[in-house]
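Please check both lines for our workbook:

___
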Amino acid sequence: MTSVVPNGVAALSHLGVIRAEGPDAASFLHGQLTQDFVLLGASEARLAALCTAKGRAIASFIGIRPEPERILLVLSRDILAATLKRLSMYVLRAKAKLTDASADFALYGLAGSALTANGVDASALPGTAITLHGGEAHAVALYPADGVPRALWIAPAGAPAPQGAPMDPATWQWSEVRSGIVTLTTPVVETFVPQMINYESVGGVNFKKGCYPGQEIVARSQFRGTLKRRTYLVQADAELAAGDEVFAANDPGQPVGTVAQAAPAPGGGWAALISIQIAALDAGGLHARAADGPALAVEPLPYPLLEDL
């Protein structure tokens, strides 16, 4: 499809920031999201989801804790308002204030040589948070794309932009898909239990923490061996979009899954992450939108999937 390698700096206007402040900010989020935020340190980041009572993910985040009483949650801007409203409903007596802080921060994606150019350790493990420029900027190491190191840069609005050659935001979006980590957007809200998008395999679910909305469903899916859907990386010659249904040759009458995220490849074609029935993957013959729609070629994920517990 393409031989383009993501490299440089891309402005990420499609992302926004929710800021949680106050003595109870960490404990409040700890009780709402799939990850542990009470023990979140300044050198760590968390991938997490917000779920309904039925365990369906309605938002996904990358969270950092630059100060003991401040947490920043980066998420897709198109679901920010609804997510903020839902979280705010449950603050009640907690000493925490949640706000849309998107205008207060500049977000960039760094890939390849741009990491070392900005003092980011290209070998840092995903989920490492690196504080730079006297504490003003933060870089979160992300999963690589085709072996290329990547990071999310978070800095106050108006601060100097990270150094590096400009990169087309579309190339960054493609690298996000190639990394195998799903970012939830409007078309797929309430479509997946976290394991359906592999969050338990990439550090997005903590099974040792206390309760949160949907926790019983998520835990039951994991510990009773009932995982029947997983997310896989595919390529296609035709355009794909989040929310597109996926069909298999052995069952053309009904969809076997959903496109979770998609992006055009720089050299042509499309890359996508599809959440489908494991049995359908084994059968092969996958197509988007219809049984005779665009063919989907499955490629290896860049990380191993954890087995059912």
Observations:
- The chain has a mean pLDDT of 93.
